[in-house]
């Protein structure tokens, strides 16, 4: 017998246009995410579901709760997690990884025998671990004794918690070659896969709001991947974020962004790389920024 649905779950009114504008403004002010009216149902559904979980029936009461000090800040991280899409997988963009290992790395001069990569908007960590696998495999095949590390950053604390565990359903790893699955992941009794400890130790994850990059201590990186992230922002903010990312790339370093996410973006310090069905740039050798 099905459990009756509580009356309060059905007592939340539809979000009218004025309410939608208020919520979309808050989201843009705090995260930069630009939710257009065409995606009103997406925002409404996410907010309503979270309200039902907490027992709120008034949009205003929940809105004020989000503004109420420490508890509000904690709840905000949960709501943002619900409003961001984490559907991703290992080796989601094979062309980007091929460009990294076949075009960029063979020509890149690695300083001080260490290589640092950054996965921006890493969600639950699949891209971060994909980068670690690509770097580890390339360095072993080329017999280069280089220490490497990968940083994954995201605005969602729940997503980062999942990333640190490195446990994934089988469909998330289906794009990986079998030899990489055998080498870098282990199958659990429940059919899920976990990234091997040695690889997990090369990847760290941190909380980052892209609107606040200038307030965070971010070391210079050799490789920056920012794919399927800029779609959340309007064009001007996309360009601003990319210009800020450039400041954190070593001379000669690589920036890879999602195909179609910022086609007309130009930066005087960056040069476009072509091919491999990827949108990528390298930074000029002399760092004058």
Automatic annotation (TrEMBL):
Catalysed transformations (reactions): L-glutamyl-[protein] + S-adenosyl-L-methionine = [protein]-L-glutamate 5-O-methyl ester + S-adenosyl-L-homocysteine
Keyword Phosphoprotein on entry: no
SMART domains: MeTrc
Name used for this protein in its record: protein-glutamate O-methyltransferase
Domain spans labelled CheR-type methyltransferase: 8-286
Lineage: unclassified sequences, metagenomes, ecological metagenomes
GO biological process terms, semicolon-separated: methylation
Enzyme Commission number(s) from the entry: 2.1.1.80
Transmembrane segments: none
Protein's UniProt keywords contain Iron: no
């Amino acid at each position: 017998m099905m459990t009756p649905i509580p009356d309060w779950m059905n007592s939340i009114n539809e979000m009218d246009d004025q309410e939608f504008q208020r919520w979309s403004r808050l989201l843009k002010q705090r995260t930069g995410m630009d939710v257009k009216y065409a995606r009103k149902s997406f925002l409404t559904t996410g907010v309503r579901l979270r309200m039902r979980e907490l027992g709120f029936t008034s949009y205003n009461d929940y809105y004020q709760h989000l503004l109420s000090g420490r508890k509000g800040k904690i709840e905000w991280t949960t709501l943002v997690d619900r409003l961001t899409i984490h559907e991703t997988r290992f080796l989601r963009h094979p062309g980007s990884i091929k460009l990294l290992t076949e075009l960029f790395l063979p020509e890149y001069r690695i300083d001080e025998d260490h290589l640092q990569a950054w996965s921006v908007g890493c969600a639950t960590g699949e891209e971060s671990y994909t980068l670690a696998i690509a770097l580890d495999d390339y360095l072993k095949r080329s017999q280069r004794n280089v220490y490497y590390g990968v940083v994954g950053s995201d605005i969602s604390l729940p997503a980062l918690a999942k990333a640190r565990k490195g446990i994934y359903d089988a469909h998330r790893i289906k794009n990986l070659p079998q030899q990489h699955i055998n080498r870098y992941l282990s199958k659990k009794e429940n059919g899920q896969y976990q990234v091997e400890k040695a690889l997990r130790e090369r990847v760290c994850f941190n909380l980052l709001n892209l609107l606040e990059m200038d307030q965070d201590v971010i070391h210079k990186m050799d490789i920056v991947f920012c794919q399927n992230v800029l779609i959340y922002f309007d064009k001007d903010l996309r360009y601003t974020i990319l210009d800020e990312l450039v400041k954190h790339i070593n001379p000669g370093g690589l920036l890879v962004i999602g195909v179609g996410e910022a086609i007309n973006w130009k930066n005087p310090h960056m040069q476009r790389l072509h091919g491999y069905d990827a949108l990528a740039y390298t930074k000029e050798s002399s760092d004058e920024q």
